[in-house]
Design goal:
The protein has helices spanning 12-21, 28-35, 40-47, 65-83, 88-106, 121-128, 137-148, 152-178, 181-205, 210-215, 223-230, 238-242, 244-254, 258-277, 287-312, 317-323. The model has no long low-confidence stretch (mean pLDDT 87). It is mainly α and 329 residues long. Helix 2 packs parallel to helix 15 (287-312) and helix 5 (88-106) packs antiparallel against helix 8 (152-178).
Length: 329
């Protein structure tokens, strides 16, 4: 059992807000109904009963629906961040946007669409101009390796490897600094699962792992385990290498057809992590309560984008229903 911290009364105000916000959470039944719709008018009608009703207008184009969802949930996270005694609990969920912004800065793409949590807009502008000195040392070294060791074509080829590895390392560092057992356990499983997915997709495309060992690793205390994964050529055997809960999820995913294995593993992991986060519901005041709510919020955003984008693009209802993630509701 993962212990929860007690007596965190300074978190009372933001947790009170969450008590009210949780009444608006969408249920699995709602999403099941959403993916069953055949007409955009009916999808729109269902969305009028959600928090997105003010962001959607009749006849609106659906091609930016994912952007609408992302903007809405980013705004909600930022609002909660302002009320958190320690905003780093929210930054864990904002961090992916930092790395998408950083990638745009490296590629000189000028605009940074995501809220800067750990990388200020000024630092991103410096990176875009070629000045890396504003970056913290680990990230500075990673970007230097990316820009100095490869020509333009080469550094584009390894950019995602470098940034994925640094993102996962920073997640572990941030969760360790928070010193919250529930958050640490959640993040460690999240990082391990995402690292395995990265490697799994690489094996499918190119069995050589040398560049990943050079630029993706190390990833904290998971490095030895990930090296064992890399040393096992057949991903269907990785469950026995990883062991534990994630190992069992890998074994279950390996029973699917090859094209379904990675999506199934990602879904199983997402459901496992959400189940972990539900432990926070036993806390009245504290950072775990906020963390659990944000985990549910991220799942809701995923399900909304999957359901609406899937149906408006005529994806098979049965496939969409199968890929929906579990909800708190």
């Amino acid at each position: 059992m993962i212990a929860l911290k007690k007596g965190q009364y300074k978190w009372g105000f933001v947790c009170g807000r969450i008590d009210a916000l949780e009444a608006r959470r969408l249920t699995k039944e709602f999403f099941t109904s959403l993916v069953s719709q055949t007409r955009t008018e009916d999808i729109f009608r269902l969305l009028q009963d959600t928090v997105l009703r003010d962001a959607l207008a009749p006849g609106a184009a659906w091609d930016d629906f994912s952007g609408v969802v992302d903007r809405h949930f980013y705004e909600e996270m930022l609002s909660l961040r302002n009320d958190c005694p320690d905003p780093r609990i929210v930054d864990l969920f904002l961090l992916p946007g930092d790395y998408l912004n950083l990638k745009r800065a490296i590629l000189h793409q000028h605009s940074f669409p995501f809220y800067p949590a750990t990388l200020a807009a000024e630092k991103l502008a410096q990176v875009e101009s070629g000045d890396r000195s504003a970056l913290p040392p680990p990230l500075r070294d990673a970007v230097a390796a990316l820009l100095d060791d490869h020509d333009e074509t080469g550094h584009r080829a390894v950019m995602d490897i470098v940034l994925d590895g640094e993102y996962l390392r920073q997640l572990l560092t941030m969760s360790a600094a928070l010193n919250i057992p529930l958050v640490s356990a959640y993040v460690e499983d999240l990082v391990l699962a995402r690292a395995v997915v990265v490697l799994w997709r690489v094996v499918r495309a190119n069995p050589s792992m040398r560049v990943y060992q050079q630029y993706f690793l190390p990833i904290g205390k998971l490095t030895s385990l990930l090296n064992d994964v890399i040393a096992t050529p057949d991903p269907t055997e990785w469950g026995g290498v990883v062991k534990g809960t994630l190992g069992l999820r890998l074994q279950e995913a390996a029973e699917q057809s090859e094209e379904e294995q990675v999506p199934r593993f990602e879904q199983l992991v997402a459901n496992h992590l959400l189940e972990m986060s539900k432990r926070s519901q036993g806390q009245t005041f504290g950072p775990e309560r906020v963390f659990g709510y944000l985990a549910a919020l991220a799942t809701e955003a995923y399900n909304l984008k999957l359901a609406v984008s899937g149906r408006t693009n005529r994806a098979d209802t049965a496939v969409l229903r199968q890929r929906l993630r579990e909800c708190h509701g």
